[in-house]
Prior knowledge:
Blueprint (H helix, E strand, L loop, with lengths): L2 E2 L17 H10 L5 E5 L4 E5 L7 H7 L8 E6 L4 H12 L4 E9 L1 H7 L4 E4 L4 E3 L7 H5 L5 H20 L12 H8 L5 E2 L3 H6 L5 E3 L2 H5 L1
Parallel strand pairs: 1-8, 3-4, 4-5, 5-6, 5-7, 6-9
Antiparallel strand pairs: 2-3
Amino acid sequence: MPLWFFMPQAQATIRALPISDAGEIRALTAICGGKKAAYYDEKFNVLCIDGQFDVEGRLERMITGRSYHDDLVVVAKSPGGGLQTALDTTRYLERYHYTIIVDGLCASACAQFLFMGGTYKIVTGKGIVAMHGGPMSAASIDKMSITPEGKANLRRENEEFREFYRTHGIDVAITTNAPQSVLDAMKKGETLFWAPPRAEFERSGVKNVRFVDADIMRQ
């Protein structure tokens, strides 16, 4: 499966925001080394997320089943998953004004919601923020061979998708502006992921994004 990659951002008891020190970023990501699903380190106020937002909401419940300190740091690795569970999780975490650090693959609903909802956003040298499409049109939903209830649920979810981007001042087109080779493959029915280039985030109104290059992170 082809991916269009971009190369892109922690031991501290008193954290300066936004986080800008590469050593602190390394220390924060190290806290999450080997942690699966949802792990919270209360001492450093770091939430480690490594897993899929399944439609049953298991990961969502693990994350939203606790409270956190303000200025939470979320270190995220996720292939995405259920739109509604990822969106509900993001809304819950936003009350803690979280900084998200992507230190691996953050794709699909992770990129579309969890990444975009962060007050500050850091992509490390190992980080990839990958899209595979935006909200569905009403006409596309109408053509689907599913129950009327299923169509109604899809319409609601996709309107919530658009509303999330409206309220965050982000152009939802960032989720669909794929390179032509990806668009051509998608027309053939393939599902592909691509990573928007850095300039696309700024152009789309995504605020407070910092990319930390691999050579800086190795120092």
